[in-house]
């Protein structure tokens, strides 16, 4: 609204300027002759002609060019100032210069203290010291917001050190918590500028568990990844991200929680085959919440609130009193296969490779859009190259102009606008005619009476009448011109606003498939450049064209009325101009469309580069990405330059035709010199030059209007994109629906597009009221697709019932607002913490603080200077990923719907926080139906039932304890893959829950449970004490 208000003010000023251009000469002529006559002089035709010609000659410079020059200079100064302010911002200093490789690729951190924001009293990191040598693995653990990711940022140089130093010897590779993939092939994402070496590449794919995924893709690793990797699952993006770092063969590896986005089996594979084997000679730091891997570490660093609260080897920490034995499994009790070839201590590090690093963006918390994973039944959307941006062809249809004006005003207002245009031009011509009529009448009344003394007498007209009429016509010209300009700008700016809103609403209601097939650059292009044309250039150009066209009509009408012979040269000239315009537009229209589409890749590349900026800087790939940007920019510049040359082509030909016409007029005057006087020749040449200038400008502006209407055409194209089902339907559920929370799936098939492969197949299941259901399966099994079907992100086949209402018959708003979801990717918006928790001001401060307390965030928010009014950066980037997930959970607690979906919501939080959150969920949502997707099996082991998906099919659905009694069940195998000790603990927990629910009078072997090597609750209390 603020932007529209400013655009409207700016447009009114432009309208006034154009109106002044239209009437300035008339006002000046009026003031001149009024003063001249009132001083007692008599006007004549010669004086009128000279004055009108003089003021017409200077009006273009004074009323159009000079104000335009001031506007452009001021815009240029603002742009220069903005660029200057950007360029003088602090640059990231190379905090840790990467020294040349030597035999000792050591990473040393000494007394490190850092601040993200120095306005905060507490530093982000405080007095951190450690040394990691080649072949060593340092595992960093700690609760949410402890500073684990910030530590890696400091080593990369992204977080400046206030005190202490960091020394990194050798090249660095960085795997970020949120993976970043760019538009291109899978292979390009992994190679990242390195040469392709088949043997090494295959080893990397196997180490990162990507081999099967590549085999399932139609084009293998040459398959195109969409913008932001939308067609890859979260786990696949995380593994591609890890593979990129491994292939770089760097000396130092910084791994920020790469295991949370994958299931237990894949996590184990990545740790054993990638971190412990492929990187076994490297200097490696791993941030993780997967505490079962701690015994494999050379060193362990425990952080809390940015401080070091524990450091040393696994055995040293055990001896120091931090009882990891109760927190985790004992090494001798775990699978020996966990660390191949390691009888007592894991076979670890000793690394070498050479150069680069990785930062990323896009959630690694994701468990996917359920894309290609295991079985070749291919339940996933097949990855293909993104379709090219659509381009219309041919001329702009009348329907586009009609819709454009209809978006700005109703037919009555458009009629008023048309009438004002006609009246303004009539008044404009009438003023000249009245001045001419006045001069002629004065000439007729000029009589000379010869007396004896030869005295001359001159009769004069009624000055009051002629001056009054002249003033009235001039006032009418001014009034109609200003009203015409202001109303035209009001209508066209209003049209731009409405088209923008329509496009925005259309994009909001577009199906998910639309965003999968259209890169962000395409959408940004239409919302920025095309809407910019509608706001700025089109109203100005359109009004200028209308004024010029009406002036031409007025001049020609007057000329024809006086000298009908004028039509003889004008008609063929007009035909020639129209032919030239049509020939020009046939080319310029398509070049303009090409220019608009070649701008999209520039936006996409810029957006993608900003998302992965830390990765690019860590890999020292800035130059390569600048060259890619230059390539995209050059392609757009070629199209833009071609468009400019076509405009010059038209201008040269129009100028040539005008010059020829003036020359012919001049030579014609010479041939008829005997029959014409000097005044007539001057008038003919003056009108020839004026008329030709107007003709030429009118043709050019009409062509420019048509070219700018391409932006309207492109905006309208996005207002007509395919939409989801209606927001509201005639069948409305009761206000308290769903009161029970019963969900029934009946033979459900689901695909993300009409012609896409099925990602859910013949799924039938009943989820009872208040039931807690855990949903598990390998990456790509269909877990997130089940939720997508429930929310109708695409229309499922079959039937889904919620409390006896068929979801396909409900409006999407009624359906979705009644289901809370804590998504894989935490979604926060720019604004205050309060607005993120309560966007519609529905809850009290007490309720907001209670929700934050229940997710363990109250203390962290209270420490901030502005508390609930703290401004969140874009996507909430000033909070850790784990904290963002907790904010989403707090939002769900406030909403308190009967159905809650938890999609990997605690993947990026520490075990203690996870346990507390699970407890909160059990208490706060005891009366709700809860569906939980999780890779951490301890999160869902106490569910009422477990739903096991595989290749889009429901393979198992029963109570956890019953499934664990079936040794052939997929769930039993998944539990066994986490290791013997943890599997034993999970089985005991399932047993406790089963007996407590079904046989409360029977107490299962509680002694065995108490003596279990993994007593989760006790272990977590010990862990919390250590922190």
Your description of this structure?
With 1027 residues, the chain is α/β, with parallel strands linked by helices. It folds into 4 domains: 189 residues, no CATH class; 241 residues, Rossmann fold (3-Layer(aba) Sandwich); 206 residues, ABC transporter transmembrane region fold (Up-down Bundle), CATH 1.20.1560.10; 117 residues, Rossmann fold (3-Layer(aba) Sandwich), CATH 3.40.50.300. The protein has 32 helices and 24 strands. A 6-stranded mixed β-sheet has the order 6-9-10-4-11-12, with helices on both faces. The chain has a 6-stranded mixed β-sheet with strand order 18-21-22-15-23-24. Strand 16 and strand 17 form a beta hairpin. The chain is elongated. This is Multidrug resistance-associated protein 4. Its main location: membrane.
Please outline what is shown here.
By secondary structure, the protein is α/β, with parallel strands linked by helices. The protein is built from 32 helices and 24 strands. The protein has 4 domains: 1-91 and 395-492, no CATH class; 98-338, P-loop containing nucleotide triphosphate hydrolases (Rossmann fold), CATH 3.40.50.300; 510-613 and 622-723, ABC transporter transmembrane region fold (Up-down Bundle); 819-935, Rossmann fold, CATH 3.40.50.300.
The beta-strand count equals 24
Ranges where pLDDT stays below 50 over 5 or more residues in a row are: 95-101, 323-385, 447-456, 1006-1027
Strand content: 5-15%
Spatial order of the strands forming the largest sheet: 6-9-10-4-11-12
Major sheet: 6 strands, mixed
Question: Could you say what the CATH architecture of the largest domain is?
Answer: 3-Layer(aba) Sandwich
Average pLDDT figure: 78
Q: Helical content, roughly?
A: 40-55%
What is the CATH H-level superfamily of the largest domain? Answer: P-loop containing nucleotide triphosphate hydrolases
Number of helices: 32
- In CATH, the topology of the largest domain is named Rossmann fold
CATH class of the largest domain: Alpha Beta
Gross geometry: elongated
Q: Tell me the domain tally.
A: 4
- The Rg value, from CA coordinates, equals 38 Å
Helices and strands: which structural class? Answer: alpha/beta
Distance between the termini: 49 Å
Membrane topology: Multi-pass membrane protein
Pfam families: ABC_membrane, ABC_tran
GO molecular function: ABC-type glutathione S-conjugate transporter activity; ABC-type xenobiotic transporter activity; ATP binding; ATP hydrolysis activity
Keywords: ATP-binding, Membrane, Nucleotide-binding, Transmembrane, Transmembrane helix, Transport
